[in-house]
Structure formats: C-alpha cells, structure tokens
Write a structure and sequence with these properties.
It is built from 6 helices and 12 strands. It has 234 residues and is α/β, with parallel strands linked by helices. The structure holds S-adenosylmethionine (SAM).
C-alpha cells in the first residue's frame, strides 16, 4: 500500500484542491452541528485535509501507514496523529466531526470491513456529531481494463505512474508502477492497491446500522459522492 509512494504522495496529488474539499466538508459539518469544535480525520494520509481543518477545529488524525504519518507529522507539528486501523481503532475519546476522505474507506475491502469501519467512526462521535465519508466507486461505476496514467514534471522531481484497473466480484485492484527521477537517481517500484466496491444502498445501510441518520450526495467534492451521517443528540 502506501509505503514507497508516501514520500511522493503530495507531489502525485498536487492537482487536488484540498482547501476547497475541506471547505465543502466543513460546510456539511456546520449545517448539522454549527458548534462543532473538534475533528478526527480517519485515514488522514499525509495530513493535507487536516492542514485546512486545523484552521477551524481542534484536530487529530489516524492512518494505518507509518510512512504516510511521517509526512503528516512533518507537516503538522503539535497535532496528535495516531497509527491505527480504521476497522478496529479506539482512541478512547469522541469528536464533534469525523471525516474519511478520498475513497480511503474502500481499503477496508469487504462489507464486514465497511461495517466495522463505519461502526468505529460512529463510536468516536460526540452526541449530535457528524461523520463525513467520501466513498470509492460502486461496482457498476468501476471499469476493469482501464489504463490510468499520471505524470509529474517539476524542476526537482519527475514521476510517471501507470496502472491498469482490475475487478473480480466486489474487489477492485491496481498494481501501480512508478518511475521516479530526481537528482538522487531514478527509482522504480510497484505498489498494490486493493479496494472494495460497495453500492450506495450498502453504504447507507452501514451508516444506519451504526445508529446514524444518513444523507447521500451523489456528487460530493470530486464527483465520487459524499455520505454525511449524524449521531443522535442524546
Ligand atoms: C487515498 S489515501 C487518502 C489519504 C488522505 N485522506 C487524502 O485525502 O489525501 C488512502 C489512505 O488510507 C490509509 N488506509 C488504508 N487502509 C487503512 C486502514 N485500514 N486504516 C486506516 N488507514 C488506512 C492509507 O494509508 C492512505 O493514507
């Protein structure tokens, strides 16, 4: 997963507008909990959303990958960042908002994993708290046999990344081949990424089983949709 690629993650995703995405999520949080003051970003990666959320909330993050967290720690000194699995974590505290962005939820792989992760996130919500999840693609929207390419050409680094999409039942996966050039040399590595494909109904049901009232926006910040769950206020 995110091991060799972690130190290039921010360069690879420099095209994303993390500020605008965080603002869209904050608007959802405010609509449901105007006094929200604390936020946990689950699968926070290198902390790019947290850097923006930190201007509005007291924030913490959690991610499985130590390599991703190392980048996040350098970016966000003084912010608590935990290593943990979204399907099992227990921080022993609650937050007014919990977020899980950029399809990270897909990495749970199975419907049991989806239930476990949404359950753990819901368990970290304060009364009336808001859970915002940006999903991976549903089975009917994921195409196998598609070649994806991504190129970065900056003065100090060049990256070419290519992969072909694969699908078997509810599994989607990519073996992402990277070629990275800098003054230090030229490096090549492959990373396997595997994500579960869940229908809208399955994701809504997972929120409901976790005791949340849920709304689904099919568009969301980048066209992959957005689920907003709200915990009961008592
Ligand atoms: C596509 S990246 C998104 C990172 C960040 N949220 C962003 O928007 O840039 C997916 C992240 O999910 C993390 N991840 C994958 N499986 C996880 C799990 N079971 N528990 C926690 N984090 C996980 C990866 O380490 C990676 O940082």
């Amino acid at each position: 997963m995110y091991r060799d690629s972690a130190r290039y993650y921010d360069a690879i995703y420099s095209f994303k507008d993390y500020g605008a995405e965080a603002a869209a999520v904050s608007a959802q949080i405010s609509a449901h909990k105007p006094d929200a003051a604390t936020l946990l970003d689950v699968a926070c990666g290198t902390g790019a959303h947290l850097a923006h959320f930190a201007r509005e909330y007291r924030v913490e993050g959690i991610d499985l990958s130590e390599e991703q967290l190392a980048i996040a720690r350098a970016r966000l000194p003084g912010i608590e960042l935990h290593q943990g699995d979204m399907t099992t974590f227990d921080l022993g505290k609650t937050f007014d908002a919990v977020t899980c962005m950029f399809s990270s939820i897909g990495y749970v792989g199975t419907l049991d994993g989806l239930d476990a992760a949404i359950g753990r996130m819901a368990a970290h919500l304060a009364p009336g708290g808001v859970l915002v999840v940006e999903p991976w693609l549903p089975p009917d929207a994921f195409e196998a046999g598609h070649l994806s390419t991504l190129f970065v050409d900056e003065p100090d680094i060049a990256i070419a990344r290519m992969s072909i999409s694969h699908k078997e039942g509810r599994r989607s996966w990519f073996d992402m081949e990277h070629l990275v050039g800098s003054a230090d040399g030229i490096e090549q590595f492959v990373e396997h990424h595997e994500l579960g494909l869940f229908t809208v109904e399955e994701q809504i049901a997972a929120f409901e089983r976790a005791g949340l009232r849920v709304e689904h926006d099919p568009e969301g910040p980048i066209g992959r949709g957005l689920y907003v769950g709200v915990a009961s206020s008592s």
